[in-house]
Write a structure and sequence with these properties.
The protein has about 180 residues and is mainly alpha-helical. About 80% of the residues lie in helices and about 0% in strands.
């Protein structure tokens, strides 16, 4: 009636317990290794001063952009680019220049200059944290440029077709007048 379980089930249970133990020990060891790998070096004062300068210039640029002073914001970012100090965030300055040229309220909006600034950022600073956003901007602005050129050619075609329609209407009225005569 009642059968005894064979020993092979006991071996299976023991193997599962051993695997769980190894897994837990491995995970615990991995967390310790990850914690040991994270170490932050203290920053020297010179880097802090540069950070303050860059923050001031970037903040001034953002304030000017918010106020609608696009030429002032552009000049501030150009100042960051022309500075000999390599600690300044030149990649952010190039990104801001692209944004300023592409801004929808900028009366001097120029998509080609924006694309040029973004591509310069991609070429000079390939490890920049702004790279993905820059790629999206370039792709979007290039599509806008293509659509604008397509729109211009379609408008020219429409004008040409309207002229053809007008000339055909004149010919049609001339034919009708000759038929009536």
């Amino acid at each position: 009636m009642g059968r005894k379980q064979g020993r092979h089930w006991q071996y299976l249970y023991i193997c599962i317990i051993i695997l769980i133990g190894i897994y837990c020990c491995g995970c615990a060891r991995q967390k310790v290794i990850q914690k040991e790998a994270v170490y932050v070096l203290p920053q020297p004062q010179t880097i802090e001063k540069c950070k303050e300068e860059e923050n001031e210039l970037l903040q001034r640029s953002e304030e000017l952009l918010e106020q609608g002073d696009y030429s002032g914001a552009l000049a501030t970012n150009q100042e960051i680019l022309s500075a000999p100090d390599d600690a300044l965030p030149k990649d952010e300055a190039l990104y801001n220049i692209g944004i300023i040229y592409a801004h929808y309220e900028n009366p001097d909006r120029n998509y080609k200059k924006a694309i040029r600034a973004f591509k310069k950022l991609m070429n000079k600073y390939p490890a920049s944290p702004l790279m993905e956003q820059t790629k999206v901007w370039v792709e979007t602005l290039q599509k806008i440029e293509n659509l604008e050129s397509t729109n211009e050619s379609l408008e020219l075609n429409i004008e040409c077709l309207e002229e053809t329609i007008e000339s055909l209407k004149r010919v049609d009225t001339d034919i009708e007048q000759k038929i009536k005569e």
